[in-house]
Amino acid sequence: MEKGNGSSDLFQKVIPLPLEEEIKHSYIDYAMSVIVGRALPDARDGLKPVQRRILYAMRELGLRHSQPFKKSARVVGETMGKYHPHGDAAIYETMVRMSQDFSMRYPLVDGQGNFGSIDGDPPAAMRYTEARLHSLGEEMLADIDEDTVDWLPNFDESLEEPAVLPSRIPNLLVNGSTGIAVGMATNMPPHNLREVVDACCTLLDNPDVEVGELMTHVPGPDFPTGGVIMGRDGIIDAYTTGRGKIVVRGCAEIEDAKRGKKAIVITQIPYMVNKSNLIETIVKGVQAGQLDGITDVRDESNREGIRLVLELHRDSDPHLVLRQLYSRTQLQTTFGVINLALVDGRPVELNLKGLLQIFIDHRRMVVRRRTQYRLRKAEERAHILEGLVKALDMIDMVIALIRSSEDPLVAKGRLVEELGFTEAQAQAILDMRLQRLTSLEKHKLQEELAELMAQIARYRLILGDPAELDSVVREELLEVKRAYGDERRTVIEDSVDDVSYEDLIPETEVVVAMTRDGFIRRMPLQDYRCQARGGKGVKGAAVKGEDEVSLVAVTTTHRSLYLFTDRGRVFSLKCLAIPEPKSGRGKHVSTFISLDEGESVVTFRDSALEGARFVFLVTKMGLAKRLPVGELEGITRAGRRILGLEEDDTIARVRFTGGEDQLLLTTAKGQTLRVSETEFRPQGRAAKGVRGIKLDPDDLVVGCDVIMPGRQVLFISQLGMGKRTRYEEFTVHHRGGMGVRAMRLGERTGHLVGAWGVADDDEIMVITSRGRVVRFSARDVSSLSRSAMGLTLVRLDEGDQVADVTVIRCSMEEGE
């Protein structure tokens, strides 16, 4: 029965709980343990618990900066066994980081041996390396034995450890901190000690100072690896709100190399970037074609600093390569600032003033508690000295009393009762050596007492006057500044040099081709060497099945194309967006622009509009319209309607004019009309235009050229026949006429493909419906009368014909 009752009592103590509630509470307990006990730094000393315990353990081992080194394993064991019962690897890793001058702006541990490198090399095992406190690390522990901080029991309550270090330096700001907790993280950059101390002094003088004024002293982070901060917006955000994004670049210079080449020399890299990984990324970028012009990568770094040498091709643009490095490697990184720290055990995001204020309040508390401790000790010592001096004044009575006493206890009591000493004074008199009876010793006691009384007055003044307390805090900060301050390493640029996608691509001449089915691609112009008239050309654009190349234009990679559709709309498309496949037809144009169902691109033009005032549009049915060029401003891939079209009519040619130009309109059957553009009044985007040239029922417009001095008109037919003709052979007529014959056509020629104005220095690029491209000089084309048939310009395979022609200007001002 007793056993049964015992079991019943035990069973009644089991409390049933919902699993959801138990998991919730357990997880919250775990999360708070990580937040408070591991991941986040204290806002006062800027240390996480493991860092604080390592520094304190080193002090307890006597590892001052002036003492010999001891094995790192000794430090790790002391820390783990007494204060931090976690993995030894984590403790050693933390100690290593506190000794690395590329991780900490001001190292707190002085290491001897292999403590890792900026290349990511791991440190040697703890049994091989040695460590001691850095002199700055000792400043973190200064006055810790003078009741300056609170103490907590260690994990087994056998010892006590400091809850926070006195910290004479504003460590959280000068060294920063990084940590990931549960549901939150901190990422604080390091700063320059001199600047932070100056800001602290400013805040001591004026508690109402604004963040903006503090930033005159602390302009931004100061990373141990140097670098350049691009722009101040992220810094302002971080200092005012506690969060911000800071763009950091490495330092690179362009130098002359051997044999007339250039080289990019990297001397500083962004904070927390692994140098070996950076080199590996650069090499992979070169192999993948993302970094142009780099021929060799050498690491010439030594103890004096970083030096990465990137040799370039002789014809490479070093500034372009630099922009590519910033965009595509870790030579430019973004440091996401999160100023999260523990304030009274709670995680709080702090701005610059808040961080400084918490440290100053901490120092005030440390100085106050230290002064109280010193005052108490001074008063106790003064009390003893007063008793000794008094005893020397009545030394005969004191000696007689002591000699007549039975034992020390009786003598002590009689000193208190008969001569008026306190118990502490009586004990000090009994402990006094006989040599103190000399007049010299009495004089020393009186001097010591006078000095103590002055110190007591000073301590009381500090404790009674907040301004005097602040002056002590200020002077100690200035001492730290004088002893450890150094020059800023990180440069801050006022503005961000944004690198656009175009900036990363060399501006090269390209050919853009489109098939009749709407597939578009670009190809390097240099692939098409200049040939003699009558050549067969090279393969230019792959076509498939019954598809044929229909449009071609020459432009550059940094320009855009205006794409005109059969529905009277125009779109703008960046040339870089057009694919440059090694094979295939490219991508369909509808991938890039918003075409309606059944709508297709009928022509496209380079968007270079230097000197142009109007867009001159001619439809296949002979209608013409002059549109102010301003109507094309702001066109995007969404498109804009610029011409109202009749049913079955489409845009044939688009030209940009200066307002007083003359134009040559050409039809497929060889009719040409020369007319002034002033005959066409400017119209709005919705207008349909007016008659430009009168056509036969089965004829259509294929050409519209702006007449310019020094040029002749080039005619090319479907079967590759062509010629040049002087503009003077065409007289000016009014709009709406049929014009005159431009070229004698027949079975050998086929209909005209178009007409283009060319100069002798220009080059002609012809693309056939089967994708062949022929490039030749304009001067190779014979100059014949307008009644002549012309000569063979392109030799075509059976069934092939000329699809489109583009003119490559000698100055590349225009491609048609």
UniProtKB/TrEMBL annotation:
InterPro entries: GyrA (IPR005743), GyrA/parC_rep (IPR006691), Gyrase/topoIV_suA_C (IPR035516), Topo_IIA-like_dom_sf (IPR013760), Topo_IIA_A/C_ab (IPR013758), Topo_IIA_A_a_sf (IPR013757), Topo_IIA_dom_A (IPR002205), Type_II_DNA_Topoisomerases (IPR050220). Its EC number is 5.6.2.2. Pfam families: DNA_gyraseA_C, DNA_topoisoIV. A type II topoisomerase that negatively supercoils closed circular double-stranded (ds) DNA in an ATP-dependent manner to modulate DNA topology and maintain chromosomes in an underwound state. Negative supercoiling favors strand separation, and DNA replication, transcription, recombination and repair, all of which involve strand separation. Also able to catalyze the interconversion of other topological isomers of dsDNA rings, including catenanes and knotted rings. Type II topoisomerases break and join 2 DNA strands simultaneously in an ATP-dependent manner. The gene is gyrA. CDD domains: TOP4c. GO terms for cellular component: chromosome; cytoplasm; DNA topoisomerase type II (double strand cut, ATP-hydrolyzing) complex. GO terms for molecular function: ATP binding; DNA binding; DNA negative supercoiling activity. Gene3D superfamilies: 3.30.1360.40, DNA gyrase/topoisomerase IV, subunit A, C-terminal, Topoisomerase II, domain 5, Topoisomerase, domain 3. Keywords: ATP-binding, Cytoplasm, DNA-binding, Isomerase, Nucleotide-binding, Topoisomerase. Residues 40-504 form the Topo IIA-type catalytic domain. It is an enzyme of class 5 (isomerase). The active site is at Y128. Belongs to the type II topoisomerase GyrA/ParC subunit family. This is DNA gyrase subunit A. GO terms for biological process: DNA topological change; DNA-templated DNA replication. It is found in: Cytoplasm. Heterotetramer, composed of two GyrA and two GyrB chains. In the heterotetramer, GyrA contains the active site tyrosine that forms a transient covalent intermediate with DNA, while GyrB binds cofactors and catalyzes ATP hydrolysis. It catalyses: ATP-dependent breakage, passage and rejoining of double-stranded DNA. Few gyrases are as efficient as E.coli at forming negative supercoils. Not all organisms have 2 type II topoisomerases; in organisms with a single type II topoisomerase this enzyme also has to decatenate newly replicated chromosomes. A motif (GyrA-box) lies at residues 531-537. NCBIfam families: gyrA (TIGR01063), PRK05560.1 (NF004043), PRK05561.1 (NF004044). Its main location: cytoplasm.
